[in-house]
Specification:
The chain is mainly alpha-helical. It contains 19 helices and no strands. Helix 1 runs antiparallel to helix 2, helix 3 crosses helix 4 and helix 3 packs parallel to helix 5. The chain has 2 domains: about 180 residues, no CATH class; about 300 residues, no CATH class.
Length: about 500
């Protein structure tokens, strides 16, 4: 089930909301159980067969969490199993990663072995369960927090709800147990808060606008150009940049839109999810970019991979190696393919260069440069670097990414006239107008660079006229977005 569907907006969400608050009047446990069951239904609507996989993962991780919590820090399991707390954690994390690797990476690794060894081994078709990366990482964080003594509540219904909570289940954000479980225990979470309802509907509407009016409008241009290159057409520099920019913006509007909708829906139930985006294309460095883009993944990689590897505590060389390893695995987390590995490696290199620049040049020689010049220059370089990396991320394979990047930077591109840019068709094989694309790109970039981040917006209160005006705008945008519903349009991060 998709957020951007008639069934979700007009049937599922109203029924779940009504049932939740009605049951909360009787018993808060009933309301939490209702929301957990509704979340399982939401997940199973895609493929009922994988509800068993999700529930199995939840039961095993909850049992491991209790086992780890009851094991003395420096002793043995009290019934004499001889298994230490740390060993239990390693076993539990390994079990999660093995499950993830089987569904997500088994065929990728098998294909790589076949290429190298000239074999034809096959595991058959393995269907990737939706959201497996997100609910696996969420539960690994729970296990580590339990090992570190940060988990204080082990209510099973709340734990099921923590993992399956439908706003975040499919594509994040990645949650911490400690930031969610207390909210499920608060009495105020089970009473309607009209201020939360108003702000939640506004966030949901803005996210839906990003998806339907932004990402879905840009998708045909990105798909047309990347698919054309994949089919053997050499693009011009303009077409290559058009494809790179449209995908860069499509991905942002698609994923940021999903996250806004998730935050808005959660707020209807008085639950505050962590912010996942903070205007990342306004970043003035790659370091800044990763503090703004997919923030909960960055937090997870920092806390559960980079720091355990040693972080910056073991010298400069080790620090950069840890950065590289973290970003490589972060790239592989996004998908089973060499393009994702290279994308991660690129960002590892970007971060290393950024840190070296700050430590060796920026602090010593650029202190007298006006701040606005540094910010503008850094922002432009960062944006170009991010766009180039997205080309690798989106391409079918490395060879097609090379064709796109070479054309972007004029190394090997098909000539194209200025008139064709304004009036012609992209790649000369589609009916996509280059002139229409220019308008769409200008509007999209203005939205990204000039408007405030949606997480900072709140519904106006205290002024009835302004509140009514804001409500009218929200209703209009909601109707406009719903009017754009058409063919099946899943979110991009569903496949990662």
């Amino acid at each position: 089930m998709l957020f951007n569907s008639y069934g979700f907006i007009f049937l599922y969400l109203p029924v779940v909301l009504l049932g939740f608050f009605q049951l909360a009047r009787i018993n808060r446990t009933y309301a939490a159980a209702w929301l957990a069951l509704a979340s399982l239904f939401f997940y199973g609507y895609w493929n009922p067969a994988y509800i068993g996989l999700l529930l199995g993962s939840i039961l095993c991780n909850y049992a491991f969490g209790l086992w780890i919590a009851k094991t003395p820090a420096s002793g043995q399991w009290k019934v004499g199993s001889g298994t230490s707390k740390k060993q239990l954690l390693i076993i539990a994390i390994a079990a999660n990663l093995l499950l993830l690797c089987y569904y997500k990476y088994a065929n990728f690794f098998m294909g790589s072995v076949n290429v190298i060894a000239g074999t034809q081994w096959s595991l058959g078709e393995i269907i990737l369960p939706l959201g497996i990366s997100f609910f696996t990482f969420t539960q690994i964080a729970f296990l580590v927090d339990t090992y570190q003594g940060k988990v204080k509540e082990y209510n099973f219904i709340h734990y099921v709800l923590f993992v399956t909570y439908f706003p975040h289940l499919i594509a994040g954000p990645i949650l911490h147990h400690k930031e969610m479980m207390p909210q499920f225990a608060h009495a105020s979470s089970y009473r309607i808060n009209w201020e939360h309802v108003a702000t939640g509907l506004m966030l949901f509407t803005l996210g839906l606008c990003k998806k339907t009016l932004g990402a879905d409008a840009l998708a045909p241009y990105a798909n047309g150009i990347f698919n054309g290159v994949q089919n053997g057409i050499l693009p011009s520099s303009y077409e290559a940049w058009a494809g790179a920019l449209t995908y860069t913006l499509q991905l942002y509007f698609d994923f940021s839109g999903y996250t806004d909708m998730a935050l808005g829906i959660a707020l209807l139930f008085n639950i505050k999810l962590p912010v996942n985006f903070d205007s990342p294309y306004k970043a003035t460095s790659i370091i800044d970019f990763w503090r703004r883009w997919h923030m909960t993944l960055s937090r997870f990689l920092r806390d559960y991979l980079y720091i355990p590897l040693g972080g910056n505590r073991k010298g400069q060389l080790r620090r950069y190696l840890n950065l590289a390893a973290t970003m490589l695995l972060g790239g592989l987390w996004h998908g089973a393919g060499w393009t994702f590995v290279v994308w991660g490696a690129l960002h590892g290199a970007y971060l290393t260069i950024n840190h070296l620049w700050r430590e060796t040049i920026s602090e010593r020689f650029l202190r007298r440069v006006p701040g606005w010049i540094g910010a503008l220059t850094g922002g432009l370089i960062t944006f170009i670097a991010v766009v180039a990396a997205w080309v690798v991320f989106r391409s079918a394979d490395i060879s097609h990414a090379r064709i796109m990047l070479e054309a972007m930077f004029g190394i090997n591109a098909r000539p194209i006239s200025f008139d064709a840019v304004l009036h012609g068709q992209l790649l000369l094989t589609t009916d996509l107008s280059g002139r229409d694309l220019i308008k769409l790109l200008v509007l999209s970039l203005a939205w990204v660079w000039l408007l405030p981040n949606s997480s900072r917006l709140r519904f106006i209160k205290g002024n009835i006229i302004l509140a009514m005006a804001q409500a009218v705008v929200v209703v209009y945008l909601l109707c406009l977005s719903i009017d754009q519903f058409g063919s099946y349009s899943p979110f991009l991060y569903f496949q990662f």
